[in-house]
Structure formats: C-alpha cells, structure tokens
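A reminder from the course coordinator: this example appears on the midterm review sheet, so study it carefully.

Given structure:
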C-alpha cells in the first residue's frame, strides 16, 4: 500500500510540474509564425514573414521540449533570459519535397509555411531549421519574439469563420483538436460540406487506433466559402477562385492535390482552436496530399474518398511514409545510407529503432510477399519496396493503408506508431 501511495504521489507531482512548466513560460494563446522557404536544389534559405497572436492554445502542455518524430524540419523556442529550451516541434513542407524534383535544379522558388507555437510570456528566441535528405541542417533562421511587439498581428478576435463540431470529447487542454476546412464549396453548398465532414469523421474513427482512442479527439468543421464550386485542374485549363487556392497537377503529377497558400488556410481557422488540419475539396476528381504537421488535402466526392482521407491523415498527423513504389530507381527523398525518420519504412541502417521487435524470429529478409488471406495485411516482416522505390527500402507488411486504398486498415506497425503519437500528445 505504501508503494502504491508513493507512486500516486509521484505521478501527481509530475502532472503538477508539467502544468507549472507551461504556465511559467507561456500564455494560453498561440503564436503563429509565418515563414517563406526559398531556394533551389543547391541552396535554401528561410525568411520570416509575419507573427500573429491567436486567442487559444490547443497544442500540448507537456513534453514541451521533446519531439515525437524528427520530421524534415524543426522549430526550437528558448527562453531568452535563461537559454532554456521551452518548446520544440517538427514538420515537413511542400518546399522540401519540391527540392527532389528536376525543376529544383534549374529554378528558384519560394513557399509559404505557417506553424503554431505557444505564446511566450517573456522574450524568446525561435530557430527554424530545414534538413536535407541526409537529415543534415541545410538552412536555418533565428529570430527574437517580443510578446509586447505591437506588430504581432492580432487574429481570431472578430469575424470568425462559421464552424460546427462534428465530434467533441473534452477541452482543448486534454484533446487533439482537428479542423476540417472547406475548399471549393460555395456558401450555398455548406450543407454538403458538413455532410462530407461527417463522412470524414466516420472514416477516421473506423480505423485503429483512432477507434479506441476516439475520446482523445475534438473535430470541428470550418465552413470557409469559395467563390467558385470545385477546385482548379490545370491540365484541363480549369482555374477556380477557392478558399485556399488548391489545385491538382502539383509537380506535374495529375493526382497530386495541394495548395501553396498556407497563410490562407490558417487565416480561415483563426479564432478556432486547432492543431491539425484536413482540407476537403469539393470535386470528384481523384487525388490528394498530406504533409506532416502541415495539412491533409483530399477530394470529397471520389468513390475512394474515405480510404484516401485516412491515408493522407496518416501523413499529415502521423508522419507515416508512403509504402508504395514506382520503379527500381533510388528515391531522392530516401538515401540508402540513412535511416528514414518515418516510423513505417526502413533502409535497415538502424532497424532496431523501427519495428524489428515486432518481426517474428526466423523471418527472412527480405520477406516474401504474402499472397492471400489476412496475412497480406497483418503478417509483420521486412518487405522490400517502399518510399517510391522497389529496391533497398522496406515496409512492414505486404499491403497497408499507407500502400493501397484496398487495404482495410493500417498495419500493426502503423497502428503502433499512431497510438504512440496520440498518447504523446495527450498523456501527461
């Protein structure tokens, strides 16, 4: 009994210390930092665009200086007076993905990026760093944040976008807050948008581990209106005026649906508590995209909508990699001499850090693909082919939600990775 009491007291003290740590350094507000990532394949730079203040903080209040995943970039906030790291977060970006395209060898471009940080009570130093495919820092920017700065834009106090909660489990302090944003829906089509947002929730919570951890989430549908119905399809010379300016044919790939108007996304959401973003596009054309700690964007009216939105959320929320492949050629995103940071693919450089503990003893490497039955989706091994190449990169099962739309679920490895991430965000 004495041991139990001691453990309970220790847990209570840990919770108290976590709360004290957040309250010591931060207001219950969000600091939105807007940057422009610029450059080409040879040289990249980061520029500060704007700072904004939002009236709520919906992010984590514990594990403040820890990273759940490395990502392709990192933001670190330190207290200026003490030099103590008080917050860290990681991300990926469309810009960094573009750097692997042939176009980046001959053209310089700039991309918008926005990130949410807790609002510091005192002067703080923020450093944002970009990493290359070998996970070395290739560009960084350090700047000071003065909470009293009159040019920090006050957003979300008036003219808040109409919204409706699809699922609400608790307070923003205790839950992960996901915003579903309308893209290509006119004012007259918002009933359709809310119906599509409900379908999104149903699809997400039909999948493990989201089903058993449903009480860890709040999901709000945000009715951002567009002038035109539908979204832009450049290959058809169809250009629409929409809420966040999304379009197909990103990097000249037909089905790749993205937007580079990231500030518009966040402006529509100002005043509504959110951490993660799903954008629904009002079109039946197949496509989508998901970027870790940035956004999911997917079409709402294609027959494969439900598996696709879950797949893309696996990217944007869970940092999961694509497990499909196109050719034998090496991917510029995943060099063979480096272990990818994504939890569901491996070059075997550091397989101990991945799912080695889930592979049955005696399993051959590479593992022969399963041909039939549930084993296709559940038999954990070391299957060659992932990360866009058929050689030298490995995935956990034959078929997974991160590989094909026909897979009924995330594989056991992806499920574990997602559950760990959810608990990281919500467990003190």
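Designed residues:
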């Amino acid at each position: 009994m004495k041991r139990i009491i001691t453990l309970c007291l220790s847990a209570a003290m840990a919770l108290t210390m976590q709360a004290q740590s957040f309250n010591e350094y931060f207001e219950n507000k969000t600091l939105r930092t807007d940057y422009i990532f610029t450059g080409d394949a040879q040289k990249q730079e980061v520029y500060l665009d704007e700072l904004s203040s939002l009236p709520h903080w919906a992010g984590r209040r514990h594990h403040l200086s820890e990273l759940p995943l490395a990502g392709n970039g990192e933001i670190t906030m330190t207290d200026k007076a003490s030099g103590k790291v008080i917050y860290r977060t990681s991300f990926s970006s469309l810009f960094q993905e573009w750097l692997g395209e042939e176009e980046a060898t001959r053209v310089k471009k700039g991309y918008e990026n926005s990130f949410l940080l807790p609002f510091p009570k005192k002067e703080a130093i923020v450093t944002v760093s970009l990493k290359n495919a070998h996970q070395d820092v290739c560009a960084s920017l350090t700047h000071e944040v003065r909470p009293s700065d009159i040019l920090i834009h006050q957003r979300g106090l008036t003219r808040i976008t109409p919204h409706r909660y699809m699922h609400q489990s608790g307070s923003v302090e205790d839950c992960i807050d996901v915003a579903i944003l309308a893209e290509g829906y006119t004012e007259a089509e918002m009933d359709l948008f809310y119906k599509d947002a409900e379908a999104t929730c149903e699809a997400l919570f039909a999948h493990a581990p989201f089903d058993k951890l449903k009480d860890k989430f709040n999901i709000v549908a945000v009715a951002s209106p567009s002038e035109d119905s539908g979204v832009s399809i450049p290959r058809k010379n169809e250009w629409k005026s929409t809420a966040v300016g999304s379009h197909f044919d990103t990097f000249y790939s037909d089905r790749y649906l993205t937007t580079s108007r990231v500030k518009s996304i966040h402006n529509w959401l100002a005043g509504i508590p959110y951490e993660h973003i799903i954008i629904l596009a009002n079109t039946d054309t197949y496509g989508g995209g998901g970027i870790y700690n940035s956004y999911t964007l997917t079409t709402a009216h294609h027959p494969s909508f439900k598996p696709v939105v879950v797949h893309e959320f696996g990217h944007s929320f869970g940092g999961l990699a694509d497990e499909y492949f196109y050719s034998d050629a090496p991917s510029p995103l995943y060099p063979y001499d480096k272990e990818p940071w994504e939890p569901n693919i491996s070059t075997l450089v550091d397989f101990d850090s991945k799912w080695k503990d889930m592979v049955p003893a005696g399993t051959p490497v590479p593992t022969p693909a399963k041909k039939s039955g549930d084993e296709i989706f559940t038999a954990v091994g070391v299957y060659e082919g992932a990360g866009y190449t058929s050689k030298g990169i490995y995935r956990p099962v034959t078929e997974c939600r991160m590989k094909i739309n026909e897979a009924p679920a995330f594989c056991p490895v992806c499920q574990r990775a997602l559950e760990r991430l959810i608990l990281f965000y919500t467990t003190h």
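Residues 1-19 have pLDDT under 50 and may be disordered. The radius of gyration is 21 Å.
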